[in-house]
Fold this protein.
Amino acid sequence: MSDELLYSEPEEDLRAAVADLLATRAPWSAVLARTGTSEPYDADLWKALGAGIGAAGLVVPESLGGAGASLREAAVVAEELGKAVAPVPFLGNLTATALLLALRESGAGDAADEHLRRIATGEQTAAVAIPFSTPPDWTTIGSLSVTPWPPSAEVHEARLTGRVTSVADALPADVLVVPADGSIYVVPASEARREPVTSLDMTRVLCDIEFDDTPAELLTIGYEPLRLALLAAAAVLASEQLGLAERCLDLTVEYVKTRRQFGRAVGSYQGLKHRLAQLWVQIAQARAVARHAASATGDEQAIAVAVAQAHCSTVAVQAAEECVQMHGGIGFTWEHPAHLYLKRAKSASLALGGPSRHRRRLAELVNLPPSAPTR
C-alpha cells in the first residue's frame, strides 16, 4: 500500500484526541437535541476543538501561530466530525483558511496574515461567502472574465451590494471572505445581514447573506486562489463523507448482529450479508481515494479530488440509506440518529459540485471524449 494512504502516528494521535472530545461533548443524543434549538452550532464544542485541540489553525503556518500541518491532518479531523455529524463550522473555516493561504502565496500577505493569526488562535472564525448548494464551474474558476456561479454581490468603490444564498458555516463566522466581480474581499460578518434558511442538514445550517453598500477590504484580483481553496475544501469534504459512511456501517453491523427476527439474528440472512460486504468494499475504496485527495498536490490534486468526490459522495449516501433501511422501523424514527447521517450525507453530496459534475470534470482533466448520446 502506498505510504500516502496510511495514517501516520501523529495523525492517529490527532484522531484519538478529536474522537475523545466528540464522544464526551457531542454524542448523537446531544447533537439531535441541539437541532431543535435556536442555536444549531455548538460554540463551546467549536472552541474546544478549534482552539483547545488546535483544529482551527491546523493548516496555518507555525510562524502565524498555527500547527503548520497539511490537508492530511485536516482530513483526519473531518473524518471524526463526519462520524459524529458534529455541529461545528470546521469545513467553512477550513475553506476560508485555505483561501487566505492561497492569497498569501499570491502576494496578498499582510492582510491575509493577520486574519490567519486570529483564526489560528481561535479569536475568529471565517467563512467564504459562496453558495454551498450551487456547484461552481470548475473550468472557469481562475478566469477574470467569467463568474463561476450566478452573480450575487456587486462592488462599487470598495462597497458590496447584493445577496449570496445558501452559504454554509457563515452563521457563527466573525469574518466573511467574499468573491465578487472577479476579486476577493473580506468583510466583518457583523456588517452583513445573515438570515438562516431551512436546511436539509440540521447540523450544518445554511444562511443567506445580504450586503447593503457594505464596506469591504480588497485582498486580491482574480479567482485563482479561490480555485485552490475549493479543491482543498472538496478534498476535506470527501474525508468527512468517508467518516460518515464508516459510522453508518458500524452502527448497522452492530444492530443486525443483535436484532433477532424469526428466531435468528437478522444479520445472518445472506441478502443482508451481501449488501453489507459490498458496502464495506466501497468504503475501503472511498478511504483510498479520500486519502489520496488529501495528499495530492499540484496538477495531480484536481484529478484526485474529482475522483474522491465522485466516489465518496455516492458511498456516503448509500451507507446512510442502508443504515436507515437495515434498522427497520426504528431507523425511520426521530429518536434514532440514522436520519442525521442521511441528511448530512445527502446535503454534502450536493455541495461543491456533486458526483455527476465531478465525473464530468474528471473526464475533462484526463481528456476523455464527450459521451456519445444514447438512443
